[in-house]
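User: Hey, my collaborator sent me this sequence without any context and asked if I could get a structure. I don't really work with proteins. Can you help?
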Amino acid sequence: MKIIELLKRERPFVSLEFFPPKEKSAWPGFFDVVNWLRPANPLFVSVTYGAGGGTQANTLEIVSRMKREYGLEPMAHLTCVGASEKNIRAFLDALVDAGVDNVLALRGDPPKGQADFIPDSDQFRHASDLVAFIRAEYPSLCIGVAAYPEVHPQAVSPEMDLEYLKRKLDAGGDFGVTQLFFDNRRYFEFVARARAQGIDAPMLPGVLPVISLAGVRRMLSFCGATIPPDYLRSLEEADAQGGSAAVAERGIAYATAQARELISGGAPGVHLYTLNKAEACLRIIGGLGL
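Assistant: No problem. I've predicted the 3D structure and written it out in structure-token form, which is a compact way to encode the shape of the chain:
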């Protein structure tokens, strides 16, 4: 079923984002996590793939299995990296054949070792190009797009970043999923600015539970998000006093409070970046009473 239709029926909600392992030998453990989280009844699940599109085929197979074997509503990520019309058609044809109704259309990150994004074709230079192609050629699909409460790191200004978001939605996008953030004011101010620019599509806030101090620092280094100084100091203190387990405890508590505040403030739900950590996500969802 299309996510945009599900959003009209169920609020507040939790959705989950998974990161498929590169090696198929790790798939049994990955699907154990999926099965463990299934009782949480996520509104939908999204499946990403690595920079450069290296695990795109895995994403396709995994979303198909999630739909067929686990009864989940999946959304596959699709990027412009390494894109050709032939490859994109093959991917989208396979999605449709598998009964998957949702795709997240992204420009994508440059391959490892490449500092800047270099388009592989003039046809798919921007996410808006990919959105327009999908809407024209696969009108039955529901299309999500990325949104940036703290502004995309390559955007020249907040105003232009909103303009790019509007282009994606005007080209056929149905809703936005935000980059991770840790200060809820960023999300609410971003939504207010978007609405003032005539953007009325749902904006689903992305929440990341910090499980590892080194891990969150690595993610922040390439996604352009920031972490409040007080929260960072709290995580560093936890790490010094109790190591990784203490960091995870503090991160789960913070993510639970953050998600609760987002929902009470009017967000339609929360999109949890799971890091494939079932226990952490279940504790957060349990803390929300959903």
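In plain terms: Strands lie at 13-18, 45-47, 74-79, 102-106, 142-147, 175-180, 203-207, 269-273. You can pass these tokens on to your collaborator as they are.
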